[in-house]
UniProtKB/TrEMBL annotation:
Molecular function GO terms recorded: DNA-binding transcription factor activity; sequence-specific DNA binding
Record carries keyword Transcription regulation: yes
Taxonomic source organism: Hyphomonas atlantica
UniProt family annotation: Belongs to the LysR transcriptional regulatory family.
GO biological process: DNA-templated transcription
Keyword Chaperone tagged: no
Gene3D superfamilies, per database record: 3.40.190.290, Winged helix-like DNA-binding domain superfamily/Winged helix DNA-binding domain
Domain of life the protein comes from: Bacteria
Domain HTH lysR-type: 1-58
This protein's name: HTH lysR-type domain-containing protein
Coiled coil residues, start to end: none
InterPro entries: LysR-type_TF_proteobact-type, LysR_HTH_N, LysR_subst-bd, WH-like_DNA-bd_sf, WH_DNA-bd_sf
Alphabetically ordered keywords of this record: DNA-binding, Transcription, Transcription regulation
């Protein structure tokens, strides 16, 4: 029985489609499938059901996966013993973060981070969605809502503000926007409804009942680009749009949506020097960016 095959079983239990596991591991789906069958042969057990939705664990497969996950936790705890109080912050940290925040606030700060922590590698998983800390898809993750379950340590990082923005050319060729009710007569930009991964992203419902975007994308960066090219009105984070010379505030005194960022860190790595270093860096970055995040002086 191969430990690497057991770890692969755990990966597939979290991501049933082999194509997804392939992207994460760099192995082709055929190799992954062959290794899973080898593991089943070694154990003499049927671990998965092959379904249109991917490899789904059988009851005995789930039992094996639970035990492997316990081993993974133990291995992480052992590794953390040498790192917890060591003088040198070193190793690799995987940080999950929302797309806009990761791309426009955190990524530009990596030069400073690299200078301060030359021995830490940082994976910034900036996507339109969340990566799971409890499932060990990331060591730590910045989220839009406070997680209520899982082996994680959670704290609030920062508040942030969203407002309505548009390109001046769009505003010049359309009806005036003088009050919230006028928004219903305009082209709105927002998220694809059935791809919204957090209720905190349903901004238009907070502004007025019945507002429906005409142009939609699961990517906040794509929404930002639509707005700055004059496609319509978009609800955008202050830290993305306020400094953009191609955009102006619309109804700045009438529409102000407040949200928060939460930092979740897996318990197994919470006390390690490398994770503490990233956590401290995020605290300093968010404190220095407070006005950019909220617009408050």
């Amino acid at each position: 029985m191969n430990w690497d095959d057991l770890r692969l079983l755990l990966d597939v239990s979290r991501h049933p489609r082999l194509a997804d596991v392939s992207k994460r591991t760099g192995q082709d789906p055929t190799t992954i499938s062959r290794r899973l069958r080898r593991l089943e042969t070694d154990l003499g057990l049927e671990l998965f059901e092959r379904t249109p939705k991917g490899h789904v664990l059988t009851p005995v497969g789930q039992s094996v996966a639970d035990k492997v996950e316990s081993l993974e936790h133990t291995a992480s705890e052992i590794a953390a013993l040498s790192d917890r109080d060591g003088p040198l912050a070193a190793g690799r940290v995987r940080l999950g973060v929302t797309e806009g925040l990761g791309s426009l606030l955190i990524a530009p700060a990596m030069s400073d981070f690299a200078a301060r922590h030359p021995h830490i590698g940082l994976d910034i998983i900036a996507v339109s969605g969340f990566v799971s800390v409890p499932k060990r898809e990331a060591d730590m993750s910045i989220m839009l809502t406070r997680p209520k379950a899982g082996r994680v340590k959670v704290r609030k990082l920062s508040d942030y503000v969203l407002q309505v923005y548009a390109h001046p050319d769009y505003l010049s060729r359309t009806r005036p926007v003088e009050q919230v009710s006028d928004l219903a007569e305009h082209d709105l930009i927002g998220y694809v409804d059935d791809l919204i991964y957090s209720s905190q992203l349903r901004y238009h419902e907070d502004i007025a009942p019945g507002l429906t975007p005409r142009f939609c994308s699961p990517s906040i960066v794509a929404q930002w680009q639509m707005a700055r090219e004059g496609a319509g009105l978009a609800v955008l984070p202050h830290f993305i749009a306020a400094g953009d010379p191609n955009l102006v505030h619309v109804l700045p005194d009438q529409v102000r949506i407040e949200r928060a960022f939460w930092l979740a860190v897996h318990e197994d790595v919470h006390g390690t020097t490398r994770v503490r270093a990233v956590s401290d860096f995020l605290d300093e970055l968010f404190a220095a960016s407070a006005q950019r995040l909220t617009g408050n002086i």
